[in-house]
Amino acid sequence: MAKLIIEAGVAEKNYWFDLWRYRELFYFLAWRDLLVRYKQTAVGLAWAVIRPLLTMIVFSVIFGRIAKLPSDGVPYPLFVFAAMLPWQFFANSLSDSSSSLVTNEKLISKVYFPRLIVPASSVIVSLVDCLISVVVLVGLFAWYQFVPSVRILTLPLFMLLAFVASMGPGLLITALNVEYRDFRYIIPFIVQFGLYVSPVGFSSSAIPEQWRLIYALNPMVAVIDGFRWAIFGTNSLYWPGFAISVCVSVLLLWIGVSYFRRVERSFADII
Amino acid sequence: MSDSIIKVEGLSKRYLLEHQATRTGGAFQYKRFSDVLSGVASKPARWLAARRDRRSGNGMGHSSQQEEFWALKDVSFDIKRGEVAGIIGRNGAGKSTLLKILSRITEPTKGRIEIDGRVASLLEVGTGFHPELTGRENIFLNGAILGMHQSEIRRKFDEIVDFAEVERFLDTPVKRYSSGMYVRLAFAVAAHLEPEILIIDEVLAVGDSDFQKKCLGKMKDVAHGGRTVLFVSHNMSAVRNLCSRGLLMVKGQKLFDGTAEQAIAEYSSATTTQSSLTWKRPLNLPQDQIGFESIEVHLSGEESQVQLKCSIVLQSPQSGEPVFIAVDICDQLQTPIMQALPFTKPFISGKSGRQRLSLEIDLPRLIPGQYVLDFWIGSHFSTTADYVKNAVTFEVVQAPSSDRSFPHSSSHGYLVPESRCALVTL
User: Fold this and answer.
1) Same structural domain, B333 and B218
2) Nearest C-alpha neighbor of B161 from the set B185, B179, B143, B194
3) Over the stretch B39-78, which tens digit does the pLDDT of each residue have?
4) Which of A241, B50, B224, B366 is the one with CA 20 to 30 A from B215?
5) d(CA B421, CA B423)
6) pLDDT value at position B25?
7) Final residue before a domain boundary, out of B54, B70, B86
8) How many domains is chain B partitioned into structurally?
């Protein structure tokens, strides 16, 4: 093993190597959070299913029945649920990762490991929740006797995109939250607001043509459109917007990682 | 390749103490975003204020905002492969900061460290234990946090469980464990790490004495197994037992570097001479009747059998009742252990003015540790004239019996009586 050199203000050279060496910790922290989350709850893991299901029902009643929003020819509950999957993933990872470092304060101040692992594993936990909700989606398919198109095979790609879109803002806010606990209050607001700004309850084709490029600055637009495209195959993807969304996601990931890396070394002092 | 495994050069660590934050109380240790924004906004105003202060010869403007504190100042040393080094010093001497930097938890402000090997550090027992998880689950989690691979943990699982003596409770959440079991399990996991360099901070101070003995034995195995160990402790007998080398830290600087024995001797003489401990009445605490103005305590005598020489100035703004004095000797947690009461009736006149009282206290033999003195005067046991809690702190470094192999702990009390015995075969 190469010599380890610790110097003031010098970024760790073998950081990414360490990240690989500690790869099992991703798994263990995620496993711990999953185990702990549903201990002493009556229905346990079912909560992962109930939450998106209830939101879906509320949306279907309010926007589908009462407001009668169009849903591209797909049953409205299915239409909402397909968007709810990535949205819940995004929302959960944002709120869980942002508080992850602060709740793991003891670890941060007593043991060394690449700090990136902590928020990353809470994003992984949200991903697991999301995968559980896919089961509900399958159930809804059966209920509505809906046969998805072949394009559903590309769904993992959009999962990956959702992961990138969640990780970037997640890391950024996690790092900021260590020093400025204000973000604890900002997150619920972002999550609530974002639900209505992102095309969850409606189709993004409802956005007037001249605004669609600007609308695509919201990284979740590409993710949600992508999910619907892969699952229903009824809408066509708006490629320029999609490209912009993907770029924004990648850019946010880059900003998130580099900001996190920059302030990470002082976490133990300020947490 | 040189044979030094850790090389530290000119290591310094600065902390900035935010007085603004401490003024609002403990609740706001961290910044709020708005503070930063308003800080930026008030910068010009502060600059003007600083200029005005400078012109009027009042330089307090800036320094009242932030104060520098050097937890470590220009520390250099070399540790050779296979060496077991003890780092000793008072609380706040920078030992823990040093270990935190070496284990990469926090970064240094200045200086450079070269480490040639895999480091595992144990700054606290049970880091990352989750109370809701079972013993079995926690072994895996804690192992992974400390940098063990799953296969490694699996291989040592039985050994760990055996060492901790918790077989029957493996599938019970650790929140239902007794504190002893909890600590045993936590130490067991950490003790089975196999790094090239092991960094340990004061973990022997836990558990009952049987377990402490076991831990010490395990640490000895580690040390004799050719691994490099850095060990911080207040426990001189453990340091003497385990370490070949001793580093003495005082106020963030390395004061002495030599054999463990020499370092301990240096430490005890340094603390005895430094133990001139004083208390002065703060200005914001005026006294309307007779009270303490200043207290000065000198330590003398053999270590672990200390004599306290107190020089006390009493001050009374007006005449009142005569008083008598009592001194409580307390442990670190301010629980009184014993009381010195030279007279049981008032003997100090209550007339206005200042008077000096000299008081000598012969302490019985005490176990190593920190002790706190509370001073009281009053005219009757239920009528207090003045009561200064926590007035001075002193430290006993040497254990009463230096050949004791396991450390003293308060679980068997603080006082060590002289004892003799005779054995006859019947």
Assistant:
1) no
2) B185
3) 555 555 555 554 444 444 443 434 446 678 888 889 999 9
4) B366
5) 7
6) 38
7) B70
8) 3
